Amino acid sequence: MEAAKQQASDIQSLSQKMSQLLTSTNRQKSTMLENIQDELNETTSYLTKQNKCFKQMIHQVLSTMKIATTQKNIEELRQIAILMTKTKLIQNYHILWTTYLKSGMGKLIMPPDKQLNYSTDLPIWPKEVIMTLRNPINLSDETKKNENYMKSVKIFIDELDKQLKQYENELNTRKNNFYGYTFTIQQMIEKYLEENLQSLRTETEHKVELVDYDYYIQALKIAYEQQNPNKYQKQLMKQLCASIYEQEITGQEFHLLQQQITYCKSFSESFECSPLFQSKLIDSIQNLHTREQLFKQYKDIAEQSKHMMLTLYVKTAQEQRDNCRMKLDTTMNKLWSDRQSHSDKNKISLIMVNLIGQRMNKIAERIQCVYKYQAFLQSDTHKNSASSCFFK
């Protein structure tokens, strides 16, 4: 009797947990779809009726079609462009979340041509999935956690497929019902959309790259732990990876700072175009000669201060970079020195050294990838608005 009661209690408990899990999954799916809708609203400012470039593109399209430029025709083409944007946005999300799923299933990395000293078919869920799909219930079992992540991600991808199919059907209906719509017209709209969606596509590509790097970094850590390292060897791995991280960060920051300074010096922005040019106090002086003399002194002080500030930034960044490089060199020298002095029993193996080195390389490459993307964003910003050279 007691056993039956316990079994019934276990079944009820499991049922409650599954119900909570399904409720959580549906809530998370809804939240993620809402995020997509928010992003869509943010990225379609170039499709508003007031946007000059959009209006120019629409008039060019209507001129090619040789039909009247009526508000009805403009709005119909705008809705077609919006639906095309929606499909592209959904496709971007599909690429990203399919990458997450492959990582979680251990199918992210193609089988290498040569044998590696670590596994590339491990199920490793990206931190983005773990953070997005937080469990409302305590799932201590790794297998159950893995099943929950896989189920939730697959449900979300299925929802993206449904949404994509809906948008494609709506798009085809509108295109078929619009008299004179041709493939040439579609190419003209596509070109306009691609120009405006380049940053979004680059962002998705960047996120996919980071998933790859994170997978390698975690796989190498797992392979190292499978070598049964002692306490010192665990600490050594942690210390070296932290050191390469610091060195690469400070090195990239120094390089980025140099690029920013070069841009500021090359950009033809005079002092008169900067925010510092405006001085109500100087402008209030009635005497023209006095005002001009005072403004010249004010300009000279501002330019000198800017030069001193930039010089200090460069010096500080260079010192940080050099200190991190010395710290890494010291730790590496200690590794080889300890390996020579320790007995075979306590000596760190060449396999472990190799795994540490590979993991350090992936960490460095990941940071380079991040700063390369930041440089792209900065250049994109400069194209759109060549504004301030002042560091905040």
What is the number of helical segments per DSSP (H or I, 4+ residues)? 10
User: How many domains?
Assistant: 2
User: Helices and strands: which structural class?
Assistant: mainly alpha
Percentage of residues in DSSP E strands: under 5%
- Rg, Å, rounded: 29 Å
Order of helices and strands: HHHHHHHHHH
Considering DSSP H and I runs of 4 or more, what fraction of the residues is helical? over 70%
Uncertain regions spanning at least 5 consecutive residues: 1-23, 385-392
Average pLDDT figure: 80
Choose one word for the global shape.
Answer: flat
Q: What summary fits the major beta sheet?
A: none
Distance between the termini: 73 Å
Number of strands: 0
Explain the overall architecture:
The chain is mostly helical and 392 residues long. It has two domains: 9-226, no CATH class; 228-392, no CATH class. 78% of the residues lie in helices and 0% in strands. It has helices at residues 2-43, 52-65, 71-105, 127-132, 142-177, 183-225, 231-266, 280-283, 288-341, 350-384. α3 (71-105) runs antiparallel to α5 and α3 runs parallel beside α6 (183-225). The model is unreliable at 1-23 and 385-392 (pLDDT under 50). Residues 150-177 form a coiled coil. Keywords: Coiled coil.
